[in-house]
Amino acid sequence: MEALLSRNYEGGTIRLARPLAPGVSRVNITDPTFSDLAGVLTGAKPVTYTSCSHERLPLLQDLCARLKLKCIPAEKFAGRSCFHMEGSKEIFFIGRDEKLLTKAALTWKDPKNNERWSVMLGYPECCIRMYRQWLDTMGQGQDLVEMAYKGTAGKEKLDFRMNNVYNYSSRIHNDNAADQRSYAKVEKYNSGYVFQTLHVIGWHPCSYDCPRSLRKAADIFAFIKHYAPEYAAALEAALAKPVLFWGKYRYAFVDGRLKDGRIAGPAVSLPRSLLDDGLYRRLALSDEIRVSGGRAEPFRGGKPLFSTLAARPFVLNFEKLPARRKGPGERAAGHR
Ligand SMILES: [Zn+2]
Questions:
Q1: How confident is the model at residue 251 (pLDDT cuts 50, 70, 90)?
Q2: Cα 268–chain centre separation
Q3: d(CA 126, CA 199)
Q4: From ligand 1's centre to the CA of 212, what distance in Å?
Q5: Among 44, 147, 224, 335, which residue has the fewest nearby CB atoms (within 10 Å)?
Q6: How close is the Cα of 203 to the center of ligand 1, in Å?
Q7: How far is the CA of 210 from the centre of ligand 1 (A)?
């Protein structure tokens, strides 16, 4: 099933079970991501943006025309010298309302407008506030995942649609070169995966139980599930796992369920992080992970495998949705 998430599956496209519009039975995994496209089509995101290569541009324009979406080039408003522009990438704004797209393009041009721009992208204001705090640390402070976890009231079970551990978009500060090198390493180790697609919501939630993010996440995931159920199942399988979290580049997604304070017979799944081999080895050797006070410790034959308490990671217990129960705010998917 995980093959569905790999970079080259079906030439980097997602095959749809139901066409999004006449003639749209596949979408590219990026340009824009399915999550962003779903966001625009459900109304969760009034505007989205994507980079697109010159060769792929006719396909993007055709997709937008068939979906009755407007697509405008950022360059037209921001010019080539805008701070967002990198290398030869061209950036496009996509949405239903051309006036709003133009407004968004003009807002985007100036870094001082970061918050207004984020509102246009549909990010909840509570989440934008937390993101602002992160930006103020110049990327040297706590990671956004830790910030969200600390702000979460119910830490025992987290909704997988909020899982942003693999989502490095807007989580690496432009001025932090070490951070950028680490991300390049993670990508290199896992070249079969496209990290910018391994999430349901494209933004970083202020907490894992943020009601506004949960509602939008439910809409976006219901949409993806309606049009591409197999892809949605693969995404759920990849994200609905307990994550042992030491830090932004050091974590392990675990195949296994956390029940009564333990994960029996755990196995570490892909993609791999930059966690050191010693810790990976201990996890691989363990036959049980015990969790107390939100922290994990691996055991083998009843004996602990970590020598110090300091090595204990947080457990982000992302779970599948309960069967037959609709998530908060979830409703039938479809164009509005
Ligand atoms: Zn929020």
A1: very high
A2: 20
A3: 20
A4: 6
A5: 335
A6: 10
A7: 5
Query: What is the whole-number distance in angstroms between the Cα of residue 130 and the centre of ligand 1?
Result: 8
pLDDT greater than 60 at residue 333: no
Q: What is the pLDDT of residues 110-157, one digit of tens each?
A: 878 888 889 999 999 999 999 999 988 887 889 999 999 999 999 999
How many angstroms does the Cα of residue 194 sit away from the middle of ligand 1?
Answer: 25
What is the 267 CA–ligand 1 centroid distance (Å)?
A: 32
Q: What beta strand segments (E) does 99-207 contain?
A: 158-159
124 C-alpha to center of ligand 1: Å? Answer: 6
pLDDT at position 85: 52
Q: How far is the CA of 129 from the centre of ligand 1 (A)?
A: 8
Q: Is the dihedral of CA 238, 244, 250, 252 positive or negative?
A: negative
Mean pLDDT taken over the chain: 90
Residue 157 zone, left/alpha/beta (φ > 0; ψ -120 to 50; rest): beta
Which structure tokens are listed for 138? 């110049």
pLDDT at 324: 58
Whether the model clears a pTM of 0.85, i.e. scores above it, the answer is yes
Q: 206 C-alpha to center of ligand 1: Å?
A: 4
Contacts of 178 (CB under 8 A, 6+ apart): none
Q: What spacing in Å lies between the alpha carbon of 108 and ligand 1's midpoint?
A: 21
Q: Which of 30, 96, 94, 99 minimizes the C-alpha distance to 68?
A: 96
**CA 330 to ligand 1 centroid distance, Å:** 17
Distance from the CA of 182 to the center of ligand 1, in angstroms? 27
**37 C-alpha to ligand 1 centroid (Å):** 21
Ligand 1 center from residue 117 Cα (angstroms): 16
CA distances from residue 285 to 22, 66, 255, 279 in whole angstroms, order as listed: 52, 52, 14, 10
Q: How much distance in Å is there from the Cα of 250 to the middle of ligand 1?
A: 25
Mean pLDDT value across residues 253-276: 93
Amino acid 115: pLDDT: 87
Per-residue model confidence as pLDDT tens digits over 186-235 = 999 999 999 999 999 999 999 999 999 999 999 999 999 999 999 999 99
